[in-house]
Amino acid sequence: MTFSLVARCARTGQFGVAAVTGVPAVGKLLTHAAAGVGAVATQARVNPYLGIDGLNLLRQGLPAGAVRGALLTTDPAIRFRQFAVIDREGRTATFTGESCLAWSGALQGDGLSVQGNRLAGPHVLTRAAVRFEAMPDEPLADRLLEALAEGVAAGGDAKGEVSATVYVMDTEDYPLWDIRVDDHPEPIRELRRLHDVFRDKVVPEIKTMPTRDNPAGEEGEVPI
């Protein structure tokens, strides 16, 4: 009942996860990412520990394929799960359990994996991937948003969508982008509105916040 993307930006090294689904609050437990490490999306009948444990394995330096193999041994109900992993080099690995709702599957590209279940068909993933890859010079958050929009336009979740998210890690332990629509009749439209708010008002402030290299941060215009 979800389709998602995990991606690495070759220009900036940022990692991102984006998703849209037919149930509320997709951004709550699906998205897992860490700066310089990688990302995991966990969906279908969600097991959050696939994301938590997957990210810990990536921190240990395991490649995406090895992380996938390790995660498959941890969950006795793995047939109901779907997940995708991208590692620090942009390598990807996915899993779709045999009990996931049709249509379900995944499509992998260069520094990208798109996966979904209960979709209108495989063309949803293809359209999303093509849109993402057609914007190599745009910010990662923009590429993820447009890929979601394209997948929804292609049919998306077979039962419709009510929630969506875009999550991007840059260089710090906190996200650069974390926008969520938890329950809305047109989640992509609302996600676009929030994207513009973040772009104009939130991301500039985040860029002035303390970093590991500059614990004092910089003087921002709008304190939180």
Could you describe the 3D structure shown?
The protein is α+β, with helices and mostly antiparallel strands and 224 residues long. It has a single domain (2-206), classed as Glutamine Phosphoribosylpyrophosphate, subunit 1, domain 1 (4-Layer Sandwich). Helices cover 29% and strands 27% of the residues. It has 5 helices and 10 strands; from the N terminus they run ββββααββββααββα. It has a 6-stranded antiparallel β-sheet, covered by helices on one side. Strand 9 (163-169) and strand 10 form a beta hairpin. Helix 1 packs across helix 2 (64-72), helix 3 runs antiparallel to helix 4 (140-153) and helix 4 (140-153) packs antiparallel against helix 5 (187-206).
Annotation keywords:
single chain; 224 residues; 4-stranded antiparallel beta sheet; 5 helices; globular
Number of helices: 5
Q: For the record, what is the CATH homologous superfamily label?
A: Aminohydrolase, N-terminal nucleophile (Ntn) domain
The main pleated sheet reads as: 6 strands, antiparallel
* Uncertain residue ranges: none
The percent range for strand residues is 25-35%
The percent of residues in helical segments reads: 25-40%
CATH fold topology: Glutamine Phosphoribosylpyrophosphate, subunit 1, domain 1
The CA-CA distance between the termini, in Å, is 36 Å
CATH architecture identity: 4-Layer Sandwich
What order do the helices and strands follow? EEEEHHEEEEHHEEH
How many domains, as an integer? Answer: 1
Residue-averaged pLDDT, rounded? 96
Query: Structural class from helices and strands?
Result: alpha+beta
> How many beta-strand runs?
10
Radius of gyration: 17 Å
What is the C-level CATH assignment? Alpha Beta
Query: What is the spatial order of strands in the main beta sheet?
Result: 7-8-1-2-9-10
Name the overall outline. Answer: globular
